[in-house]
Amino acid sequence: MRYLSIDVLRMMAIFVMVLVHFAENLAGTILPIAGLGAPVFAFLSGCSYKLWLAGVERKQIPENEIFRISMRRGLFVFSVGLLFNVLVWFPEEIFNWDVLTFIGAALIFLNLTRRLPLQVLIAIAVVALLISPFLRAMADYNSYWQQLYFDPDMTLPDVVIGFLAVGYFPFFPW
Fold first, then answer.
1. Could you tell me the pTM of the whole model?
2. 78/84 Cα distance (integer angstroms)
3. Mind listing the pLDDT tens digit for each residue in 26-43?
4. Can you tell me the distance from the alpha carbon of 71 to that of 83, in angstroms, rounded to the nearest whole number?
């Protein structure tokens, strides 16, 4: 089932992201709405996943099928994010984690944790919020950012640190 309100908000978020990227990359201008599109898009992706999950559970789709579909979707979105980076930024910045790689990883994480009790999920969220500043400090967050751009070395540790804590869209909260 589609929800028009979510689709409209998602379209608006995509429009904001495209507008911001054009302004940044073509005009060298940072718009005041620069930080709005991607978080809204990611939030709506989570809402959509929860609504989809409720729908397939109502249809009594077997658990193993839900797991398989969810993993496939998460891996697909993650792969599209990587492909986008390759097509746009190759070879220098293919691991500048974008909103699609974040959403793909988040969908996989949601799938792996969706059967956990609410108390455990709340504990995971609190721990993630509490450790995020420490991860950034341990990784020396500021050293990865040069003139508002994420600038890691292309080493495995920097790629992992970028994905987890210091990239454009790290797995742990901004």
1. 0.88
2. 10
3. 888 888 888 899 999 999
4. 18
